[in-house]
Amino acid sequence: MTIDEEPEPEHLVSVRPLSELPGQTSSDQRNADVLRAWHAAQRSIGPVSSLHEVLAAVSDAALTLLGNATHVTLVLGDDAEVGKATELSAFIPVMTRVRGPDATFFTPPEGVRVTRSVFRKVIRERAAVLAADAPDEVFSSESLLGASIRSTLAVPLWRGASVVGVLQADNRDAPAMFDSTDMEALAVLAAYASLAIVNARLIGRLQTAEAALEKENVFLKARERQRAGNVRILGESSKLKALLEQLRKVVDTRVTVLIQGETGTGKELIASFLHYESERAAKLFVAQNCAAMPENLLESELFGHKRGSFTGATEDKKGLFEMANGGTLFLDELGEMPIGLQAKLLRVLQEGEIRPVGATSTRRVDVRIVAATNRDLEAEVKQGRFREDLFYRITAFPVNAPPLRERREDIPILARHFLEIYAKDLGKPIVGFSQEALELLTSYAFPGNVRELQNEIQRMVIQADAGAIITSELLSPRVRRLEGLVDEADTQPGALRDMMDQVERFLLGRSLKEHGNNKTAAARALGITREGLHKKLRTLKIS
Questions:
Q1: Is the pLDDT of residue 344 over 50?
Q2: Residue 468: in which H helix or E strand, if any?
Q3: How far apart (Å, rounded) are the C-alpha atoms in residues 128 and 123?
Q4: What is the pLDDT of residues 520-543, one digit of tens each?
Q5: Which domains are seen in the chain, by residue range?
Q6: What are phi and psi of 458, to 5 degrees?
Q7: Which string of DSSP letters, residue by residue, matches 1-29?
């Protein structure tokens, strides 16, 4: 289709505002044959849903209703589904159907010249327009003459107060006048067609969104499967083995598990291990940091909200409890949860019910709760910052994530694991660690635990040359300050565990000597408890 720019046709018979157009016909307006044609057209439009099919059905219906019409063109705004098209340039012809010699309707294989003047007047004045059949010299519009248009009739398509398009019928064969009855009939068709076209475009948008969501779901499920395969808790230390043995006892129960431990000990990894080793592995594992949001946003995030429940709530939102239904919800930093929300969490644990913000009814959910904290919740209860009833519910099965300094034999295993990951991510092959580098890593206390070790390895891989060995020179200054310790402890070459025992024996002896054999003071200086110090002294056979 081609569009011609030109002044408006001067010979206009009728211009009727949108507000005056009829919504239905009456028997005295159309004879029985035309009424039957209109109802047949209505039935042909109803069953179809795709935009192209709706446009074709509407065009064919117009040709059926208007026996004098030879061409019907549909013009739509480029954002017609929401009625936002306001500039004339935003409206373009999208389909033209033609009456054939054998009374069949078809879309012409070649472009059809379409005059812009009539539908532009319809859009600008929000009115139906009827232009007369007249001698050529009466028309000032060159495109009307060029297209051999003898008479034209155009009515607006609308949604609410917005014009979303134009339905235009032309006679291009013989002098044949459209009349006011034709205008009435086409206006009634336009009322029905407007709804059908808007709905078809909305359905198209929904189908597009649904297809995108389906692709996203496929991607997320694939990522979940990949993540499930990657959930491994690495290490051979006795403390780690004891932790895993505890977890396996509750993996397929609904018991709430509280993971306690220092920052960076891998509490979320432990929670995901519980999920992916359980019968809930096919459902979602969802995590939320309770310290990351203010109370009102955290409540909405966890429990969801209803549209209009607060400023900015423009639509219903599903909360994490609903998203994790059938699966596991991990609440990190539980000790930071505002006390007002703790009552709602207690209700979920006791009743298995949630109430979205602004809702008047509850919803049942089946969610396994795993929580984590680095706070002393018992002390928080005494200070009035944590509900006592929630404390007893949440501590049904507490486990402790051991700090890295208490599982030093796992450091080389974890270091090699992170080295493999970052060497692959950066496309930089690394041979491995020198023995001195591993000794220094194992000797370091890692107050930031596994997370600090992970960052240390990433930084070293970035600095290292491809094909190189990670040496002690690449370690950070806080780790390298132990560099002379091996020599100072006068360790004898041997197995790494034996050398580390020699270093640890040296450090314990030096600390006790510096503090006059005061075990409490020595333990405090070493960053361990007095009981921990006694245990190490017995293990290392230090009297």
A1: yes
A2: none
A3: 9
A4: 877 777 767 777 778 878 877 776
A5: 2-203 (3.30.450.40), 231-402 (3.40.50.300), 405-539 (1.10.8.60)
A6: -60, -45
A7: -EEE--PPPS-EEEEEEGGGS-SS--TTT
Written as one string, the DSSP assignment of 251-286 is: TTS---EEEE--TTS-HHHHHHHHHHTSTTTTS-EE
What average pLDDT score do residues 490-510 get? 70
Angle between helices 180-230 and 32-45 (to 10 degrees): 10
SS3 content of the chain, % helix, strand, coil (to 5): 50, 15, 35
Query: Is 186's pLDDT higher than 80?
Result: yes
Q: Find the range with the poorest average confidence among 91-95, 139-143, 260-264.
A: 139-143
390 contacts 348 by C-beta, under 8 angstroms: no
**Spatial contact of 169 and 154, defined as CB atoms under 8 Å apart:** yes
Query: Which residue bears the tokens 């997320």?
Result: 220
pLDDT confidence of residue 27: 42
**Which residue, 96, 79, 95, 97, is CA-closest to 87?**
79
With CA atoms as reference, report the closest residue to 164 among 259, 92, 116: 92
Average pLDDT over residues 331-351: 93
